[in-house]
Write a structure and sequence with these properties.
Blueprint lengths: L9 H10 L6 H12 L3 E4 L6 H13 L16 E4 L3 H14 L7 E4 L5 H10 L3 E4 L1 H9 L10 E4 L2 H6 L3 H10 L5 E6 L4 H10 L4 E4 L10 E7 L5 H11 L5 E4 L3 H13 L4 E4 L5 H12 L5 E4 L14 E4 L6 H8 L9 E7 L4 H11 L4 E4 L8 E3 L84 E3 L10
Parallel strand pairs: 1-6, 1-7, 2-4, 2-5, 3-4, 5-6, 8-13, 8-14, 9-11, 9-12, 10-11, 12-13
Antiparallel strand pairs: 15-16
The structure holds adenosine monophosphate.
């Protein structure tokens, strides 16, 4: 299918062509026509599917009729409101609006917490047609009377499940109460737990349902692998994995802010260009770290799960889970930073003995086994090198001899906290108190990274092709090294 067949206007088609997209992704094929017709949509689509363009393109087309050059703020009321759970996602959606809307003279703005309100206030006072916002800061502006939502025609709730996870439900309800009852509403969510379905039934009117991938489905483009390794040897192993694999751009996940900072410090000390990204960092530090990572100025970004959601990490080839997340869904979000938009990626997990249950929970959620290689005390880490035939070799069924780990249980209770922790830390973003500006954000991204030894895979839009190096593992270890 071609974008032309979706009924998009010339200005949008031109912007799309300049982005290099040749074909709409499934969520765009299914979402754009009903949105253009004015219907409500409830879309199950995770990041990386092209969902942002799926709502941004028809939204721009519908609002195009209102484009005007008047200086009067009254001629530029907020007509489209996009709410996102995090600052980073808000900034990213805003960027997409600017990219796709560059030939349509509508005004857009982005407001989120953690930064000075004044410049935002000035923009809102001057009038904008499209507003991207995190919930807390949006309500702050409403309270200050710099914002009137009485003329909103289109509402988009992006990453709705995350929004609820982060405790934004009361804010969302307050925002919904400020909007005209007659409007078009679109909800995008990776998963649809009961509370999301309830919210959908309240805010959507006879929605068209779209599901581009089953809930929690993980892109086939991601190669999952794991190494069973002693906790104390993880850092050395990580460094060698990165060096031997010539990994130029790697997003490394830890569970806690403390371990992210510590690991980043140690990696810096060992000569890597590296930064930590977590919610104790100022917004400016977070933005800077992300930008540097995207630009290739930083080889490594060590992040907590604040970075695991929604970010568009274009062509990020490697995600390494230095520590597995307590919540298996966070694994999905972490590795969702790679294997995006048709590009393949590697997701490598370093699994200490007390994390094996976490791995089992992840496998249960994925409904798949992850190849795990035990790394004996004396063993060098696996070496990343191109495979001979350019094909990836990882997603293979694990030979029985490779590990004696039991298959994922049909029912798994919450995994025990690792011995190193006395209690389960609250997930970042899950605050019992005001969940707003401090956490109204997350996500970093990567940039197009060239892999020295890579083969490729086509992007939906037929962009650059690239090969992913296969893991050349040390001789298979027949039993666990515990
Ligand atoms: P999203 O799911 O909105 O975060 O988008 C993921 C990535 O896909 C972004 O980098 C987009 O630039 C890219 N993208 C969106 N639509 C297309 C398309 N039709 N063809 C190729 N890439 C796309």
């Amino acid at each position: 299918m071609k974008f032309e067949e979706l009924g998009l206007c010339a200005e949008l088609l031109r912007a799309i062509a300049e982005e290099g997209y040749t074909e709409p992704t499934p969520v765009q094929q299914q979402g754009i026509p009903p949105i253009l017709r004015g219907q409500d949509v409830m879309a199950g689509a995770q990041t990386g599917t092209g969902k942002t363009a799926a709502f941004t393109l028809p939204m721009l087309q519908k609002l195009k009729q209102h484009a005007n050059t008047s200086v009067s703020p009254a001629r530029h009321p907020v007509r489209a409101l996009i709410i996102t759970p995090t600052r980073e996602l808000a900034a990213q959606v805003f960027e997409s609006i600017r990219t796709y809307g560059k030939y349509i003279p509508l005004r857009s703005s982005c407001v989120y917490g953690g930064v000075n309100m004044d410049p935002q206030t000035a923009e809102l006072r001057a009038g904008v047609e499209i507003l991207v916002a995190t919930p807390g800061r949006l309500l702050d502006h409403v309270q200050q009377r710099t914002l009137n939502l009485g003329q909103v025609e289109i509402l988009v709730l992006d990453e709705a499940d995350r929004m609820l996870d982060m405790g934004f439900m009361p804010d969302i309800k307050r925002i919904l109460a400020l909007l005209p009852a007659k409007r078009q509403s679109l909800m995008f969510s990776a998963t649809f737990p009961e509370d999301i379905k309830r919210l959908a039934s309240q805010m959507l009117n006879a929605p068209v349902r779209i599901q581009v991938a089953p809930s929690n489905a993980v892109t086939d483009l991601v190669t999952h692998s794991a190494y069973k390794i002693d906790e104390r040897r993880k850092r050395d192993f990580l460094e060698r994995l990165i060096r031997d694999g010539d990994m130029r751009q790697v997003l490394v996940f830890t569970r806690t802010k403390i371990s992210a900072s510590r690991l980043a410090r140690e990696l810096q000390r060992d000569g890597f260009s590296c930064a930590a990204l977590h919610s104790d960092k100022t917004q400016q530090e977070r933005t800077q770290a992300l930008a540097d990572f995207k630009d290739g100025k930083l080889q490594l970004l060590v992040a907590t799960d604040i970075a695991a959601r929604g970010l568009d990490v274009e062509d990020l080839p490697h995600v390494i889970n230095y520590e597995l997340p307590h919540n298996p869904e966070d694994y999905i979000h972490r590795i969702g930073r790679t294997g995006r938009a048709g590009q393949p990626g590697d997701a490598i997990s370093l699994v200490a003995r007390d994390e094996e249950e976490l791995l089992a929970s992840i496998e249960k959620l994925l409904k798949a086994r992850i190849a795990i290689t035990a790394v004996p005390e004396s063993e060098r880490p696996a070496r990343h090198a191109p495979s001979r035939d350019g094909e990836r070799t990882e997603r293979r069924p694990r030979p029985a001899a490779e590990t004696s780990r039991p298959a994922p249980a049909a029912e798994t209770s919450r995994p025990a906290a690792p011995a190193s922790e006395t209690r389960r830390p609250a997930r970042e973003g899950q605050r019992t108190t005001r969940p707003r500006d401090e956490v109204a954000d997350r996500q970093p991204d990567a940039t197009p990274a060239e892999l020295a030894s890579s083969a490729k895979s086509a992007r939906p839009g037929g962009r650059v092709k690239r090969e992913v190096p296969a893991l050349f593992l040390p001789p298979v270890v027949a039993k666990q090294d515990s």
